[in-house]
Fold these 2 entries.
Entry 1:
Amino acid sequence: MESKLPHIGTTIFTVMSKLASDEGAINLSQGFPGFGADPNLLELVGKYTMKGFNQYPPMAGILGLRQILAEKTQLTQGYLPDPEREVTIVSGATEALFAAASAVVRRGDEVFVLEPAYDSYEPAITLNGGKPVYVPLEEKDFSVNWQSVRDAITEKTRAIFVNSPHNPSGYVWTKSDLDELADLIRGREIFVISDEVYEHITFDGKKHLSLGSHKELREKTFVCGSFGKTFHVTGWKIGYCIAPPEMTTEFRKIHQYLTFTTVTPMQYALAEYLEKPERYLSIPDFYQKKRDLFISGLSQTDFQFRPSSGSFFQLVNFGHLSKMADRELAERMTKELKVACIPVSVFYSDKKDNQVLRFCFAKEEAELLEALDRLRDLNRILA
Ligand SMILES: Cc1ncc(COP(=O)(O)O)c(C=O)c1O
């Protein structure tokens, strides 16, 4: 059978997680928390399942969850989306990203991907007949080179995927980035698909600026979020999309035939759980402690790094230590040091190897300390 995605195989996340498990290594590769969710949230799921909230909910999501999410957006981002016409609950941010692309990308359209990039953007473009156009982020700090984006615009440019806080680098967009993007698409029919799954994980007092918080960008943007990432329940696969009414209408046409709707008791549980804002306002502090612990340990190793500003990932450079390919080092670290990570070349369309590795620090303190201890033996592999 002719493949529609001939270049896609098993993702590196699956490969490294399997290797980590086969080798009995500490798995700092795939991006999922190594700790449980708040028991209050889990109890709410029990409560709503037992109460019989187990049949199909409304296609766009239960109104209570859409309302409280709109209120959260007002509190954290300063604008109030219309829960009826602008908010849709979906099966994970992955669905939101795909449905948004399906809603706007037509055959032959060009869509920008700023790389290194999360792996679900490209298939969402390709399967909808579009052509990904890759624009590299700055190697030094993964900020956007706006001139390069501007230079890549053609008459066929239809959309741009953006991601802040950024996976894998942790770069957090500034107000100036938002203004640059607004400037770039002004007067053009270019839509923005904004992946904001790490919206609540920022450090050192930096604040996540949703593209929805920018009045002009809001008119052209699908804001895609993930309750799974925010509340340490990635396996629930529940997220959302906020977009203006006309865009939401098109988005829902796709959502309706992708999944139709999203798991009912989790929606009720999240609606009640979100009533207390401290439950999401405390997340930056929670993760800051982990990031600080992780980077303080990393500074005892030979890796070079810039502290991550957001997300639960930390990048490290090893080019000054070895000529080894990043993939080889990641595999050897898993087998010989028993610590798994992700080689960052996989986030580039041409698999460009800048000798950078990505660690996920969303793990229990003891596990992070043990991993850091093992990483001190890095020279054993590099020698
Ligand atoms: C940048 C980014 N976007 C989207 C997702 C997927 O989110 P969800 O599990 O809600 O589909 C991930 C998960 O790793 C991610 O890192």
Entry 2:
Amino acid sequence: MQIDEAGYKRPRLNKAYQDQPIASSEATKTLNRSCPALTLDITPYKTKNYHPIWGEILEVLRGHAQDKEIRQAGSSGGVISALAEYCLKHKLVDGVIQIKACDQNPLENVAVISRSRQQIIASSGSRYAPASPAEAIRLVKSSTEKYLFVGKPCDVAAIRQLQKHDPHIKQGIPYLISFMCAGTPSITGTHQVLDQLNVSRQEIIGFRYRGDGWPGLTKATLKNGETRSMTYNESWGKVLNRHLQTRCKICPDGIGEFADIVCADGWEGDEKGYPSFEEQDGHSLILLRTEKGRELLRNAESDAVVKVESFDAQNIFAIQPFQYYRRTTILPRLLAMKALMLKIPSYKGFELSRSMKEIGFYQSFKAFTGLLVRRKKIKRSQLKTA
Ligand SMILES: Cc1cc2nc3c(=O)[nH]c(=O)nc-3n(C[C@H](O)[C@H](O)[C@H](O)COP(=O)(O)OP(=O)(O)OC[C@H]3O[C@@H](n4cnc5c(N)ncnc54)[C@H](O)[C@@H]3O)c2cc1C
């Protein structure tokens, strides 16, 4: 996986394969059935309780890691890192597949297998830039060890869909944990954050998008020991979220439907219910999606690894308004893309027409025409530059 000119990670064929006919190879067939950019099929993982906005949910909780260091380091309440450490400690897995900032280049995200508490803490926090934990799959292929896999909903969907066709990957990865995702910004977004902090890329030895508090600061550490920072609201809200890749804007699965457990920010709303980004002790929203996920979380709770309380599923909307809006407007956006004869991924089982009904005709029409107008503008500006 390599960053392309637009600043997103894209697959490149290894040299050894470049001269081979690949279209009919087994690897290509498996890729076509598993890659979330091409296809997402949630049908095998649904029951009659399926919720048209939030997917399959056994329980909704709000809570945090009991370990103070992990809670502080984590992006929200540190629940993902706490569960990862629990899995290692109790030998449920041999390693945790996750991403972290590269030691040599803190702007690059690398896939790693963590085997200790220190490595898990070093990988904690959200990284709002291209990252591909599924790259570590090649190590699973040649190993008999067991792993917990942590990734964005698309990373986890790729592994879950691959597991259907590859029993070795199914055995090797017994747990999949994800987090809600509003989309991946290009690396250009990060470069613009650095520009606003008045820092050159060569000067930095560390870069965090958030975490180390909740939501925590976006912070660049310079070679001379100085730090420069801005708030999460400034970095994500004013820069990074303007660089999301197109596929993320039509993603029906920002909510991690293929995972055993999904975490998100457990914001407390203001009087209008809008999430507050005031600095405070971290809280995670936790969606338990499978029995295996529920067992893991409840065992970790019994061992005082996480502290949780029930959360009313009706209130998810108030703290995740973006996820609600995107999910309910996917279908009109897809229809607009079809009208423009653009290629769209195949989505099965997401009940998108049911979710569209939630927002009604006016909002659906707005989403449909909004996409048409934006696309036309892009085309016109491309014509001008050409
Ligand atoms: C691109 C992006 C978009 C997000 N959008 C939302 C959203 O819309 N709503 C919301 O509530 N939360 C969103 N989050 C998630 C949120 O910031 C927290 O990560 C989540 O609540 C888990 O918190 P935690 O404290 O349990 O995680 P931690 O204990 O801090 O663990 C985080 C884990 O995520 C992994 N990780 C971090 N960045 C990436 C990445 N880019 N790709 C793959 N793995 C990664 C880390 O390696 C680590 O294992 C987003 C995060 C990212 C990276």
